Amino acid sequence: MNQAKKHIRKVAYHLETHEIKNKLNEYQREIVQYSQMQTFSRNLYEKNYYQSLIQNSTDNLAAELEEIFVTAAYVQENRTENIREVQSEETEEPENQQRVFTLSELAAFDGSQGKPAYVAVNGRVYDVSGKAAWAGGTHFAGLRAGNDLSGQFASCHRGMEGILEQLPVVGVMAAPEE
């Protein structure tokens, strides 16, 4: 996901949070006012009237909060479902056959704009999306996902092939075109 979308979601979240806080404060002021009026009322009918206003405000607050939480849960569920659908579309391959990547196909998985980050090392394609060291598709020394990094891996991590064993294999590289 690109930075602009992340920023928009963050701003929307803070606006929603601010809106909820304002609603709660508004109801709190209203209920406190009715409660004070009830306390200082001398007439039983007035006391009952303010009690019913307090009850109505409480019921309205509960209904609004329920609507907010149901909506938030629905939105979150849809986001999660959409992410699952996108991931399953990206990874649907026959179980016993790995995807074969060309260099140009691999380049599409550069980790930018929410895309997965894949790198090729020694003919195998690994998913590095979940690694903090590959955030945004970039790694130390200016390495970028979406490339065959066999040479760079060998020079930097010589004898440390165990690093690769921790990564999901998503395919293999096609034989180089001549």
UniProtKB/TrEMBL annotation:
Gene3D superfamilies: Cytochrome b5-like heme/steroid binding domain. It comes from the Bacteria. Residues 101-174 form the Cytochrome b5 heme-binding domain. This is Predicted heme/steroid binding protein. It comes from Anaerocolumna jejuensis DSM 15929.
